[in-house]
DNA sequence: CTGTTAGCGCATTCAT
DNA sequence: ATGAATGCGCTAACAG
């Protein structure tokens, strides 16, 4: 029924071993026989049996990329970049770049279609790796499950993207799993995720400077003259959320607006997920740590959360003149909430996001945000996973975050600065 | 070094066969031994060898989902939905839904973390399928390559999403490849992609009613009083582009505004990718087929293309009162271009998109568009791929597209209706 | 350079 | 209900 190596060997009048050698290309073979084999392969339309190959070689060509939310461009961009570095066999930097601008449907590619019948249809496809992305949905369980599945497949490499959940038990479980993967020869790379405690198992960890970016963003707002800044944070248990929040509070404190306590590193996020428990906080009340918590609302990294949280923020403190969102998507929801309350952006309330996703520049007004080089980071992670690039010293690299000032932030209204209004 | 079935068997004092049976659960095993085996598995921290298992069983638990652009939420939403149906072992409809709103970072999940140490770490993970998404970048070659890679892995199922490239050679190559996959036992499902010519190889094809949706959208514009409607189309060679364009032209013709020729089905898209070749077309010139082409500009399915194409459209015909974009992302670019020219939306120019991606409702003004039930379609494709749902009659189902009228479309300015202005 | 020989780890017959 | 054998298709030593 299905064509095997032996069939090809017979057709080409060589041994199975020889066929294997030409297919894998990692062994000297006479040019003559080589061509004969290749022809037989094409004629028989032979396709290598992956499982058999992996079993014998004890390695597979599978490379897994774990993401929290595949519908979020934040992850899509990183995953796509990584995949482009992995899919191509080292060469063809061109095609990799093509996917950069999140552009789909390459228009000019139809001309090369005919050649595809040759490149793609036959079973040989050089050292092609199968780069696949797995959607964890942000669930620790699914993350572990996927890791096990990948381990089962003897994956060649695994790339973990996005912030981690700060649960000790889960951290430990992940760490243990990654160690086992590494022991089995799988290359593990972290992208946009803080380094592990005992990071020996990991080839490299690329961490975003969330804290620094957040700090610069809030400093920008402070320089504009804002003092009552609301913060719509992400899920409390994620590292990304904590780091961005810390950066924000660092800046607030430096400006003498934050609470002295709780500003340092390592403290768990304090705010509850849904507010409303502290009743009757008088507007324009005390500053400091109290305000800090009162002006922080946690939610998910999606639009709806931004909308809901902003409404809550506006309710708690109608005098806010600026709102910093956990990311651009959340910022969009915040904008919707602000407008719905009849306020203008940025005249009445400034809004800022994080990530600088493609749509941010198209918001009206364009969103002030912090740019994360997602594509570059993803591509680098891909190369690291393939061993095409040497890891940074210590296996850890911090990736810069650049402040992008645009139309959604402006100085606060003058009359708002007057106490009591 | 690595723990094998035999090790587990020895530890549990049974034969390897028995261990295999408990692990696969598809064979009667005494409860006592069963537990003994399971304990041994946990104690030894055994992880099944996927390749070996697949080789022996001649099937794997890999399910591939092909997308054109992973950074595009259009695909991300479908892929995520499909993956949620595939990943979970039939049950737990709840978790599947959780990913719906494109929400990442499930906030409430930390409570269940500890249980993960049990569910996820051990080698057994019931009939878990490994749902993976592969990013083709819209390139036919990569599409074929991925299909080959998946074939090599003896994938259990493959889901192809998004419009196809209308190149006969490529169509044939894909068809042939899918037939081979089906012959090898792989279940093939098409999602948001038109049925194949000889569709026997395919379990089911879920096609979006792009044509109908586009027609209704343009009818809406016509009802509003627009007559000069620019169309920013996608890549000329894709089915999605053609179908949407045809729907648009159908509506135009029905209103007596389209050219008699070229309106029917099956004609290749006429407009060149970059215009400007026909010089000095006098404004307010002849209607009909001529205008139809003049008012159509092709580009990619991304924001930049929408921006550039709209600028071109505005140059060719400053009197356009409405612009229909290939999709929402393109519409965003169109909006940017329109504003840059000092025009207001919708007062001066109405804008419409397609797909109704999450961000569309947040555009200012909110985007009139055509809603495609991406999540539902993806989920259904996932179930079809898993054999959890019976295919529609004939294996083909058309998925409705619903017009969403929002703020970005309005009647044209009265003075614009005056000829010569 | 090429052919021969052994397994890789597991799922299945077939027995019992 | 369980154990013993057989082979899935391929790669990797070894010869030669």
Description:
2 copies of one chain form a homodimer. Chain A has 421 residues and is of the alpha/beta class. In chain A, 42% of the residues lie in helices and 12% in strands. Chain A is built from 16 helices and 12 strands. Chain A has helices spanning 5-12, 16-24, 31-44, 50-57, 73-87, 93-98, 113-119, 140-152, 168-183, 210-224, 239-254, 289-294, 303-316, 328-340, 374-386, 414-417; strands spanning 62-67, 130-135, 157-161, 187-191, 204-208, 229-233, 296-298, 322-325, 350-352, 369-371, 396-399, 402-404. Chain A has a 6-stranded parallel sheet with strand order 2-1-3-4-5-11, with helices on both faces. A 4-stranded parallel sheet of chain A has the order 7-6-8-9, with helices on both faces. Chain A has a two-stranded antiparallel ribbon with strand order 10-12. In chain A, helix 1 packs across helix 2. The radius of gyration of chain A is 26 Å and the shape is elongated. Residues 90-124, 261-286 and 416-421 of chain A have low confidence and may be disordered. Chains A and B meet through helix 4, helix 5, helix 7, strand 2 and helix 8 of A and helix 4, helix 5, helix 7, strand 2 and helix 8 of B. Chain B binds a DNA duplex (16 and 16 nucleotides) through residues 4-6, 14-21, 24, 27-30, 33, 48-49, 51-58.
Throw out a few tags for this protein.
421 residues; DNA-binding; alpha/beta; homodimer; 16 helices; disordered C terminus
């Amino acid at each position: 029924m299905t064509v095997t190596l032996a069939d090809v060997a017979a057709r080409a009048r060589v041994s199975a071993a020889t066929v294997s050698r030409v297919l894998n290309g990692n062994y000297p073979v006479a040019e003559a026989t080589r061509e004969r084999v290749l022809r037989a392969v094409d004629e028989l339309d032979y396709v290598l049996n992956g499982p058999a190959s992996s079993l014998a070689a004890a390695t597979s060509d599978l490379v897994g990329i774990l993401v929290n939310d595949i519908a979020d461009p934040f992850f899509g961009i990183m995953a796509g970049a990584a995949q482009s570095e992995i899919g191509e066999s080292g060469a063809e930097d061109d095609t990799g770049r093509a996917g950069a601008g999140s552009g789909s449907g390459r228009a000019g590619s139809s001309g090369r279609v005919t050649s595809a019948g040759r490149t793609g249809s036959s079973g040989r496809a050089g050292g092609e790796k199968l780069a696949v992305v797995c959607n964890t949905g942000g669930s620790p369980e699914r993350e572990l499950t996927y890791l096990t599945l990948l381990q089962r497949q003897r994956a060649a490499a695994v790339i973990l993207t996005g912030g981690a959940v700060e649960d000790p038990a889960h951290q430990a479980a992940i760490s243990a799993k990654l160690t086992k993967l590494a022991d089995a020869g799988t290359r593990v790379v972290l992208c946009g995720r803080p380094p592990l405690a005992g990071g020996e198992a990991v080839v490299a960890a690329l961490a975003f400077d969330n804290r620094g970016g957040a700090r610069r963003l809030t400093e920008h707002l402070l320089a504009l003259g804002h003092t009552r800044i609301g913060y719509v944070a992400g899920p409390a248990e994620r590292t990304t959320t904590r780091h961005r929040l810390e950066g924000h509070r660092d800046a607030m404190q430096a400006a003498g607006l934050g609470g002295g306590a709780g500003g340092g590193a390592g403290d768990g996020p304090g705010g509850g997920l849904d507010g409303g428990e502290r009743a009757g906080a008088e507007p324009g009340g005390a500053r400091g740590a109290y305000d800090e918590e009162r002006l922080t609302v946690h939610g998910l990294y999606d639009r709806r959360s931004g909308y809901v949280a902003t409404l809550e923020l506006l309710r708690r403190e109608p005098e806010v003149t600026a709102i910093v969102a956990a990311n651009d998507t959340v910022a969009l929801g915040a904008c919707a909430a602000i407008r719905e309350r009849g306020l203008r952006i940025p005249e009445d309330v400034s809004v800022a996001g994080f990530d600088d996703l493609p749509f941010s520049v198209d918001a009206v007004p364009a969103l002030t945000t912090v740019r994360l080089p997602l594509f570059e980071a993803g591509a680098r992670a891909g190369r690291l996973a393939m061993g095409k690039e040497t890891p940074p010293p210590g296996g850890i690299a911090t990736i810069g975050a650049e402040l992008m000032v645009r139309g959604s932030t402006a100085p606060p209204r003058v009359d708002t600065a007057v106490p009591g209004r």
